[in-house]
What we know:
Layout: E1 3-4, E2 10-16, E3 26-33, E4 38-42, E5 57-60, E6 64-69, E7 80-85, E8 88-93, H1 97-110, E9 126-130, E10 139-146, E11 149-154, E12 177-178, E13 190-199, E14 206-214, E15 217-221, E16 231-234, E17 238-243, H2 247-250, E18 255-260, E19 264-268, H3 272-289, H4 296-306, E20 312-317, E21 320-325
Antiparallel strand pairs: 1-2, 2-3, 2-8, 3-4, 4-5, 6-7, 7-8, 9-10, 10-11, 11-12, 13-14, 13-19, 14-15, 15-16, 17-18, 18-19, 20-21
Helix pairs in contact: 3-4
Amino acid sequence: xxxxxxxxxxxxxxxxxxxxxxxxxxxxxxxxxxxxxxxxxxxxxxxxxxxxxxxxxxxxxxxxxxxxxxxxxxxxxxxxxxxxxxxxxxxxxxxxxxxxxxxxxxxxxxxxxxxxxxxxxxxxxxxxxxxxxxxxxxxxxxxxxxxxxxxxxxxxxxxxxxxxxxxxxxxxxxxxxxxxxxxxxxxxxxxxxxxxxxxxxxxxxxxxxxxxxxxxxxxxxxxxxxxxxxxxxxxxxxxxxxxxxxxxxxxxxxxxxxxxxxxxxxxxxxxxxxxxxxxxxxxxxxxxxxxxxxxxxxxxxxxxxxxxxxxxxxxxxxxxxxxxxxxxxx
Length: 330
């Protein structure tokens, strides 16, 4: 059975088919380390091996998309389960049925990504000296990351050539100096922005990215401080944005998909509200980009996306009341 060691890692023995489709399972000692984000296996318990013994194999948790029972896929392999990792499937054998269930559960739990919320991880504080042109004394400034936004504040006073306080370089205590993150196009107005987790196109691993939506497209960056986007998805290429029906298969909460002309993007947000917010924002931006040639039904759909409380008129026909869209709204 898997157990927790002194380093709070899940450990235990399993048989693994190291060579894919070979049908030959070998006994290995597995360590699931959620802090390092990896699953590794050794010939034996490292405590029984010489110091510095190397791992036989390893797998990053971000590459794992699903772990499930594989008794139907490998009927001859008793208590078998499979780890889907990108283009590769790893088949393993547990000691018994309970061992199988517990390993599948802990692996799925460990690979289930949740986007960190602002403030969950302490950010480093760096002090750097900045000096104004013509000044005779440096002023020390402190840079902090608060809510994902870099903020620079002065840590000491400085004097210029005339001995005057260099207030032009410092902001009042309640008005910090913000460094705005440049986007790929400064002329575009950002409609929505924030961190999400996106599935890769080739390796199918999941990585945290910073997304911005403007009137022309959806862009994502490595971080909110990057100048250039890793990719820009034009709105004209997005066919629809909707909640992903395969979220149970991918073991991802708050998952939605962008269906484009060339690819389907799978994106995970940090809450159901944020997921629905992205879907509505992207859908509304798509509708808004279509311009004045939209049909009446498309116009009504756009209004519902931006404001679900649409006014309606009541037409009485005999004893019945029928609600129809106001002609003023179409």
